[in-house]
Each structure stands twice: as C-alpha cells, then as structure tokens.
Specification:
The chain is about 70% helix and about 0% strand. With about 230 residues, the chain is mainly α. The protein has a single domain, classed as Glycerol uptake facilitator protein (Up-down Bundle). Helix 1 runs parallel beside helix 4. It is globular, with a radius of gyration of 17 Å.
Length: about 230
Amino acid sequence: MRKLFAELFGTFWLVFGGCGSALFAAGIPDLGIGFAGVALAFGLTVLTMAYAVGHISGGHFNPAVTIGLWISGRFNSKEIAPYILSQCVGAILAATFLYLILSGKEGFSIDATQAGAFASNGYDSFSPQNYAMVSAFIAEFVLTMFFIIIIIGATDKLANTKFAGLAIGLALTLIHLISIPITNTSVNPARSLSQALFVGGEPLMQLWLFWVAPILGALLGGLLYKNLLQDNK
C-alpha cells in the first residue's frame, strides 16, 4: 500500500503542478510563464517527487513508465494494474482540486471547443498549433520512447543514480519544450485522462491516442534498452 500511495501522491503532484502551472500562470499578460515555464513546471514535479517518494515506489507516476519498466524486466507484472489505477486516481484527484480552485474565479468555464481547454491534450483543431493526428501520434510515440530509455538508463545499476531524478526531470522538461505546441504534451496517459474527463466532448473522444501512442512508445523504449543498451554481464 505504501507503494500505491506513493504513486498516487506523485501523480497528483505531477498533474497539480504541471497542469496547474498551465491553468493558473501561463497566460497572465506580461507576467505569465508561457510554454517554457509550463515545461519546467512538469519537469520539477517529477524531479521533486522522484526524490520524495521514488525510493518507495520507484517513482513511475505514469502508466506508460510502468509498462515500459515491465517490458524491460525492471517491474513485476502483478503490480501493473494496481500502479496504473493509483496513478489514474491521483491524476483525477489533482484535476478535481484544480477545477475547484478555478471555480472560484469569476467567469470560469471550460470551453470544450477550444484547444488545450483545462490543459487537455488534442490533435487537429484541438492541437495548440493545429497538428494532425499522425503528427500527434508520432510525437507522443517518439518522445515517450526516449523518456523510457532515459529513465531506465539513469537508474541502471551502472549509472550514477544519485542524479537520476535530475536527469528524468530535465528530460520531461525537454519533452514539453518540444511538444506543447503539438499536443499540449501528454507522454502520460493518466495526465491526459484526468483533464479530458473534466472537458468532455472531442478532447475525451481523442483520449485514445494519448493512451495508445505513449504505451507503444514505452514498450519500444523498454525493449530497445533491454536488448541493445543494457549490460547484462
């Protein structure tokens, strides 16, 4: 249970901090943090939780990471479903708190016809810069693949694992710097689920891509590291 609570808290912090920065601070005229600030916020959430609770659960905070670690031989298959459930619950709880806070702002409403509504992910007209479905799929697939390779490599027995949290957090920052304009950045099915549930409409209909592409990318990343990069001696 300690592991599951750690995953819940870590994923809560990722969504609350990352999506919260986008909702509260990104768009303030002259003072807003913009795309770069949101990218940094997502990286900081993972970095801080990696050191806070990573020693308890492994610090996945993401269903795709859990699956990527499993296919690489670094995670027990019996724990996949409980981990993913905990991550999704944590993400949804965070989205609930974000909604409650935003509800206190005069005139607040979620416009399900707008790209990025409530920090949701999307493609076509729901992409921040109108990228097509194929572009969104490729971006989410490739970026998740590299994210998994970085995570496994940074935590390898031969690596300096004291800096693993820093490497992983900076990797997620870089991923967001690349892909916020494309999909509003997922690489995390739980993060996409939580926001889409509150938006509904087309963002919820497009949610499939933000589960399928990251999971496929994670599977390939895990296999590549296991078979091409890992020192099995």
